[in-house]
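Q: Convert this sequence to structure tokens.
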Amino acid sequence: MPTPDAPSFHRPWTLAVLVAVVLLEAAVLVGFAVFYAVELLAGNAETSPGGAAFTLVLLAAFGAWLAAAGVFLWRGRRWPRSAALVAQLFALVIGVPTLTGGVVVLGIAIVVPALVALFLLFEKRVLAVTQGSARGRNHDGAAPERPDAGGQDAGGAS
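A:
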């Protein structure tokens, strides 16, 4: 039985690009967390030490969450699509005002990957790979092979 991690599992290039964007965003968030940690330890925090520590923890947690979403997207799971969608919406909420506020290069660097990821999240091949239900997964987390049910789910409802 093929699993998403087995060589016989075909991952479309669109999934690879989506995962790359999500993991790049996660790396940027973790990078900012490290920057905040260095600035906090050096005593150069632009905000209060408590505010800098809170921002550091928030960036690190969000970066780890997004990295996990990228890994599980690569494995063909369903839940990371919503996690990645929320991250892209947050990126647009930050990127659009940045872009329109005159910081064009940074705004583009935030908005373009978010738009690419949003498009790829709903691309048919990505959806096909990640449509497996969490119900019915075998012991290693892979969805079992199912014959075509004629548009019906496992419960028989269409």
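The longest helix spans residues 13-42.
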